[in-house]
Amino acid sequence: MKLLVTGGAGFIGSAVVRLAMARGHQVVNVDALTYAACLDNVAMVADSPDYAFEQVDIRDRAALDAVFAKHQPDAVMHLAAESHVDRSIDGPADFIETNVTGTFNMLEAARTYWTAQGKPDSFRFHHISTDEVFGSLPNDPSIKFTEDTPYDPRSPYSASKASSDHLVRAWHETYGLPVVLTNCSNNYGPFHFPEKLIPVIILNALAGKALPIYGDGSNIRDWLYVEDHADALLLVVEKGEVGRSYNIGGENERTNLELVKTLCAILDQARPKAAGSYADQITFVTDRPGHDARYAIDPTRIRTELGWRPSVTVEEGLEKTVAWYLANEDWWRALQSRHGVGERLGVKA
Ligand SMILES: NC(=O)c1ccc[n+]([C@@H]2O[C@H](COP(=O)([O-])OP(=O)(O)OC[C@H]3O[C@@H](n4cnc5c(N)ncnc54)[C@H](O)[C@@H]3O)[C@@H](O)[C@H]2O)c1
């Protein structure tokens, strides 16, 4: 398939690009190269004749039309977004413009192209979203997010993603555009931008700095290794039922404090400190405003209908992740000077 992947220079998008190409697909990577992008993430495929890169902002409709006309994709995998909740608290406008208006532009550019092609049934518009659209769960293991959970977004980020999900469903119902949607839990793994929790903890630990934990560390997240997410996304774009959404999660619920302690234990083995444990650097800081208590995904639909399974446990995935950061210092050092990285964001509210 020829896949038009938006956001392919970001964390998850680049994992999709690498895996899609390893599986023989052609890829057109459409990315504006914001502060969160890094073309090194796809440097290993950049010289392939099956890869093309277009530096295009999804807020620019005319530029999107030109990309569709030039590359004639079989499917779209739409990942481009502003993705950092703390930044959405300080500056929500970018989130509305990219995540809502940008998705609207993508839908209209795709619809125009698909209509001009004679509306082929085989075309797919795959919208990649988050479990954060469902809001916050009580601490009861029997309650998880299913595809039927009502939307209840609570941050500017999750509200913008929820809006984009609604647009995608409306374009299917109204215009017949063949869409599929996925809502995934928290990802981690190689090439994770150094402002997100797991890389912050690894890099601060190595630098001898405080390991900041929001509130009392009791917030629960459901962690998924990024390469398992990319695998699920390729399965959905190829085999998902049109008009249907799929929840993707690793069934790996951990409190933030448990997660950080696990990372410290892995680091204690991989790069022991002269004295003590990295856990001695844990520091509790003011909580994020409106911090959702718990996210947990019920992935029954994608497991039973499409046969998807994650390949690693969270412990295996975290060990691989720590090993990757230890081996790729040049990659993360270059990103630490980008605007806002290393600062505490999202506490103005
Ligand atoms: N990170 C997670 O844990 C997670 C979980 C579930 C879903 N998601 C979703 O997956 C997608 C990718 O997330 P990520 O963590 O890889 O994000 P990221 O911030 O690492 O990457 C986003 C990419 O989109 C690009 N981009 C941003 N604005 C753009 C614009 N206006 N035009 C074109 N490109 C633009 C950036 O340059 C960057 O390369 C997002 O849609 C996000 O909502 C993320």
UniProtKB/TrEMBL annotation:
Q: What is its EC number?
A: 4.2.1.46
Identify one Pfam family in the record: GDP_Man_Dehyd
Aminoacyl-tRNA synthetase recorded as keyword: no
Question: Which Gene Ontology molecular-function terms are recorded?
Answer: dTDP-glucose 4,6-dehydratase activity
Q: Which cofactor does it need?
A: NAD(+)
What keywords tag this UniProt record? Lyase, NAD
Per UniProt, residues of the NAD(P)-binding domain are 4-321
Return the SUPFAM superfamilies for the record.
Answer: NAD(P)-binding Rossmann-fold domains
Organism's domain of life? Bacteria
- Report which reactions are catalysed by this protein: dTDP-alpha-D-glucose = dTDP-4-dehydro-6-deoxy-alpha-D-glucose + H2O
What does the similarity note say?
Answer: Belongs to the NAD(P)-dependent epimerase/dehydratase family. dTDP-glucose dehydratase subfamily.
Record-given protein name: dTDP-glucose 4,6-dehydratase
